[in-house]
Write a structure and sequence with these properties.
Layout lengths: L1 H4 L3 H15 L20 H20 L5 H23 L4 H28 L10 H9 L4 H15 L36
Helix pairs in contact: 3-4, 4-5, 6-7
Length: about 200
Protein backbone atom coordinates (compact mmCIF):
# COMPACT_ATOMS: atom_id res chain seq x y z
CA UNK A 1 0.00 0.00 0.00
CA UNK A 2 2.86 2.39 0.76
CA UNK A 3 4.24 1.92 -2.76
CA UNK A 4 0.94 2.85 -4.35
CA UNK A 5 0.27 6.12 -2.53
CA UNK A 6 3.84 7.44 -2.77
CA UNK A 7 4.55 7.53 0.97
CA UNK A 8 7.39 5.08 1.24
CA UNK A 9 10.79 6.35 2.30
CA UNK A 10 12.46 5.94 -1.10
CA UNK A 11 9.85 7.94 -2.96
CA UNK A 12 9.92 10.69 -0.29
CA UNK A 13 13.72 11.01 -0.58
CA UNK A 14 13.45 11.31 -4.36
CA UNK A 15 10.93 14.13 -4.01
CA UNK A 16 13.21 15.91 -1.51
CA UNK A 17 16.20 15.57 -3.85
CA UNK A 18 14.16 17.02 -6.73
CA UNK A 19 13.14 20.00 -4.52
CA UNK A 20 16.77 20.59 -3.49
CA UNK A 21 17.84 20.60 -7.15
CA UNK A 22 15.11 23.11 -8.02
CA UNK A 23 16.04 25.33 -5.06
CA UNK A 24 19.76 25.12 -5.84
CA UNK A 25 20.48 23.56 -2.44
CA UNK A 26 21.67 20.18 -3.66
CA UNK A 27 24.67 18.90 -1.71
CA UNK A 28 24.91 21.94 0.59
CA UNK A 29 24.41 22.08 4.31
CA UNK A 30 21.03 23.55 4.93
CA UNK A 31 20.82 26.95 6.53
CA UNK A 32 18.94 26.82 9.83
CA UNK A 33 15.32 27.86 9.72
CA UNK A 34 16.04 30.81 12.03
CA UNK A 35 19.50 32.31 11.70
CA UNK A 36 21.53 33.48 14.67
CA UNK A 37 20.22 36.77 15.99
CA UNK A 38 20.33 38.99 19.03
CA UNK A 39 23.65 39.85 20.61
CA UNK A 40 22.72 43.52 20.32
CA UNK A 41 24.51 44.40 23.56
CA UNK A 42 27.80 43.82 21.73
CA UNK A 43 26.90 46.24 18.93
CA UNK A 44 28.70 49.58 19.02
CA UNK A 45 25.53 51.27 17.84
CA UNK A 46 23.56 49.85 20.77
CA UNK A 47 26.24 50.77 23.32
CA UNK A 48 26.45 54.32 22.04
CA UNK A 49 22.66 54.71 21.79
CA UNK A 50 22.30 53.45 25.37
CA UNK A 51 24.89 55.99 26.54
CA UNK A 52 23.06 58.76 24.64
CA UNK A 53 19.81 57.71 26.33
CA UNK A 54 21.36 57.81 29.83
CA UNK A 55 23.00 61.19 29.18
CA UNK A 56 19.78 62.58 27.71
CA UNK A 57 17.78 61.62 30.80
CA UNK A 58 20.33 63.44 32.99
CA UNK A 59 20.47 66.42 30.65
CA UNK A 60 16.70 66.78 30.65
CA UNK A 61 16.53 66.41 34.43
CA UNK A 62 18.97 69.27 34.78
CA UNK A 63 18.17 71.68 31.92
CA UNK A 64 14.65 71.07 30.58
CA UNK A 65 11.48 72.02 32.47
CA UNK A 66 9.91 68.95 34.04
CA UNK A 67 6.51 69.63 32.43
CA UNK A 68 7.87 70.54 29.01
CA UNK A 69 6.79 68.55 25.97
CA UNK A 70 10.34 68.90 24.65
CA UNK A 71 11.61 66.92 27.63
CA UNK A 72 9.26 64.03 26.87
CA UNK A 73 10.16 64.10 23.19
CA UNK A 74 13.90 64.09 23.84
CA UNK A 75 13.75 61.22 26.32
CA UNK A 76 11.41 59.21 24.08
CA UNK A 77 13.57 59.80 20.98
CA UNK A 78 16.65 58.58 22.89
CA UNK A 79 14.74 55.57 24.22
CA UNK A 80 13.39 54.77 20.76
CA UNK A 81 16.93 54.71 19.39
CA UNK A 82 18.01 52.11 21.95
CA UNK A 83 14.87 49.98 21.78
CA UNK A 84 14.71 49.83 17.99
CA UNK A 85 18.34 48.73 17.69
CA UNK A 86 17.63 45.94 20.20
CA UNK A 87 14.38 44.91 18.48
CA UNK A 88 16.01 44.99 15.05
CA UNK A 89 18.79 42.74 16.27
CA UNK A 90 16.32 40.29 17.82
CA UNK A 91 14.19 40.03 14.68
CA UNK A 92 17.18 39.74 12.35
CA UNK A 93 17.02 35.95 12.48
CA UNK A 94 13.66 35.86 10.75
CA UNK A 95 13.37 39.09 8.75
CA UNK A 96 16.17 41.22 7.38
CA UNK A 97 13.55 43.61 6.00
CA UNK A 98 12.10 44.22 9.47
CA UNK A 99 15.60 44.52 10.93
CA UNK A 100 16.42 47.27 8.42
CA UNK A 101 13.13 49.07 9.09
CA UNK A 102 13.74 49.06 12.85
CA UNK A 103 17.32 50.18 12.36
CA UNK A 104 16.06 53.04 10.21
CA UNK A 105 13.53 54.01 12.90
CA UNK A 106 16.38 54.06 15.44
CA UNK A 107 18.49 56.26 13.14
CA UNK A 108 15.59 58.67 12.59
CA UNK A 109 14.87 58.85 16.34
CA UNK A 110 18.48 59.66 17.14
CA UNK A 111 18.54 62.28 14.36
CA UNK A 112 15.44 63.87 15.91
CA UNK A 113 17.23 63.94 19.26
CA UNK A 114 20.31 65.54 17.69
CA UNK A 115 18.09 68.28 16.24
CA UNK A 116 16.55 68.86 19.70
CA UNK A 117 20.02 69.35 21.18
CA UNK A 118 20.92 71.75 18.34
CA UNK A 119 17.68 73.68 18.98
CA UNK A 120 18.55 73.92 22.67
CA UNK A 121 21.95 75.44 21.82
CA UNK A 122 20.58 77.82 19.15
CA UNK A 123 17.76 79.11 21.35
CA UNK A 124 20.23 79.94 24.11
CA UNK A 125 22.87 81.46 21.86
CA UNK A 126 25.35 78.66 22.61
CA UNK A 127 27.79 77.45 19.94
CA UNK A 128 27.67 74.06 18.29
CA UNK A 129 31.15 72.53 18.46
CA UNK A 130 32.70 71.98 15.04
CA UNK A 131 34.80 68.90 14.30
CA UNK A 132 38.05 70.73 15.14
CA UNK A 133 36.93 72.06 18.53
CA UNK A 134 39.40 70.80 21.20
CA UNK A 135 36.53 69.95 23.56
CA UNK A 136 34.88 67.75 20.97
CA UNK A 137 38.15 66.04 20.13
CA UNK A 138 38.86 65.43 23.81
CA UNK A 139 35.38 63.98 24.42
CA UNK A 140 35.65 61.64 21.43
CA UNK A 141 39.14 60.55 22.51
CA UNK A 142 37.94 59.77 26.04
CA UNK A 143 35.34 57.21 24.85
CA UNK A 144 33.08 57.52 27.88
CA UNK A 145 31.15 54.33 28.67
CA UNK A 146 28.72 55.65 31.29
CA UNK A 147 26.75 58.79 32.01
CA UNK A 148 28.90 59.27 35.13
CA UNK A 149 32.04 59.36 32.96
CA UNK A 150 30.42 61.89 30.63
CA UNK A 151 29.41 64.09 33.60
CA UNK A 152 32.93 63.92 35.00
CA UNK A 153 34.40 64.78 31.61
CA UNK A 154 32.05 67.77 31.27
CA UNK A 155 33.09 69.10 34.69
CA UNK A 156 36.76 68.75 33.93
CA UNK A 157 36.39 70.17 30.41
CA UNK A 158 34.58 73.18 31.87
CA UNK A 159 37.42 73.69 34.36
CA UNK A 160 40.00 73.37 31.61
CA UNK A 161 38.35 75.11 28.65
CA UNK A 162 35.66 77.31 30.16
CA UNK A 163 32.50 78.12 28.23
CA UNK A 164 34.32 79.71 25.31
CA UNK A 165 36.50 76.68 24.54
CA UNK A 166 39.78 78.45 25.18
CA UNK A 167 42.26 76.35 27.12
CA UNK A 168 43.06 77.78 30.54
CA UNK A 169 46.66 77.52 31.66
CA UNK A 170 47.26 75.28 34.64
CA UNK A 171 43.83 73.61 34.46
CA UNK A 172 43.47 69.89 35.03
CA UNK A 173 44.18 67.58 32.14
CA UNK A 174 41.30 65.77 30.46
CA UNK A 175 43.35 62.62 30.88
CA UNK A 176 43.54 63.05 34.69
CA UNK A 177 39.85 62.28 35.27
CA UNK A 178 40.60 58.92 36.87
CA UNK A 179 42.44 60.74 39.65
CA UNK A 180 39.20 62.30 40.91
CA UNK A 181 37.93 59.82 43.55
CA UNK A 182 34.22 60.53 43.21
CA UNK A 183 34.12 59.74 39.50
CA UNK A 184 36.27 56.67 39.07
CA UNK A 185 34.69 54.11 36.82
CA UNK A 186 34.55 50.54 38.09
CA UNK A 187 36.92 49.44 35.32
CA UNK A 188 39.63 52.06 34.75
CA UNK A 189 40.64 52.57 31.13
CA UNK A 190 43.19 54.64 29.38
CA UNK A 191 41.52 57.44 27.40
CA UNK A 192 43.22 56.10 24.29
CA UNK A 193 41.81 52.60 24.70
CA UNK A 194 38.58 52.35 22.72
CA UNK A 195 35.64 51.30 24.80
CA UNK A 196 34.67 48.53 22.36
CA UNK A 197 38.04 46.84 21.97
Amino acid sequence: MDDMDGRDGRDGREKMNRREKMDGREGRDEEPLIRKHGGYRKLKSFQLAELVYDVTVRFCDRYIDRWSRTRDQMVQAARSGVQNIAEGSQVSGTSKKTELKLTDVARASLEELRRDYEDFLRQRGLPLWDAEDPRRKALVAWRCATADEVAAWVKEAHDRYGRDGQSRQGGPSIRSMSSIPSIKSPTPRSPRTPRWS
